Amino acid sequence: MTFSILFAVILGYLNLSMIWPLNIANNFKIILSVILLAAVCKDFILRLLFGGAVFTPDVPRWLMIIVSVLYAFVIISLFVLLIKDFILLACKLLKIKFNADLASRLAILISLCLSCYGVWEAVRVPAVKHHEVYIENLSPEFDNFKIAMLVDIHSSSLNRREFVQSIVDKTNALEPDLILLPGDFVDGTVEQRLHDLEPLKNLRAKFGVLGTSGNHEYYSGYDRWFVELEKFGIDLLENESVIINLNNAKLIIAGVPDVQGANPGFGFTTPFPAPDLNKALADIKLDNVPVILMEHRPGNARHNAKFGVALQVSGHTHGGQLPILSQIIKNFNNGYVRGWYDVEAEAEKHIMKLYVSPGTSQWGGFPVRVLDPSEISLFTLKAKAKGNQGE
Questions:
Q1: Is the pLDDT assigned to residue 381 strictly greater than 90?
Q2: Domains of the chain with bracketed CATH
Q3: pTM of the model
Q4: Distance (Å, rounded) from C-alpha 365 to C-alpha 348?
Q5: How many degrees, rounded to 5, is the angle at CA 79 between CA 75 and CA 82?
């Protein structure tokens, strides 16, 4: 209900500020208003016409891209119009003439260009982003150890088998020692998306492929996806840890499930285990052995730092997607939205490194990225500090 009221207000504002000032026939204004209404109601209309679940209507990819551009236009034009109207107000106060029709046309053009660019950025195969990271107490045996991370793949009607296969091919070409996948693999049931996500079984790394759940796994049927992902050769660490042994040197990789599992909703009722790092590390009692933690959301970073974790890798935020929107998303994730952070443990001297990936792809509900490219993350671990200890 709250979102319905919010979008009604947004639609009203877009019509008053962008559509009605245009110097065109009223019939055309009505048509544009209807298009905006359809864009806002895209999920309902697509499910009505094609079927599918809330986060994954069964829509041809080309149509999903077109609809996504229209939806992105609604969101982006809101911010563009706010800037336009601020300028209009300033002009009125300064008694400067202002052409409302021209301003609306420019707002439409700018918003449409940004929307097309943003959706293209969201659906393209991501580039590889290289990171060098110093790990405290890392054995020299692990110097230059390479870890690839894929997060927020969101296999869906937008991100189909060919897209997932391209990500797998790019990742394998890096020849990583280890691959981590901290959640949000899929949007859709096993029946809908198994074929699209299947290329993940071709991921190859010397020390294996490890993962954890994201919030979207619970919307999509977590129990069944857990089984299928394990069949793909992905060892899911849900409040668990494994030890990587390399020439008698050790490195601990831990994983905790997404908190969504312990908060039923969005189509599932069974409460699943909450993230419990204490449990994940309970059977691991190795002094001076660094711990790398996978947790889908970055918000618990300060809590996790208290356990002596050296590096936490997360996703979930999608990097904020838009410059203004990123500040809002940041507030929902305890200040973390994208990139490197030094996280100080409460009442302790330990500093944990946190990396929040912008994601390897984008979910179909709002597939747009402006100045926020996705990435395949490749971490090269360093046993010795090298000036910039982040990347």
A1: yes
A2: 2-123 (no CATH), 127-382 (3.60.21.10)
A3: 0.92
A4: 40
A5: 135
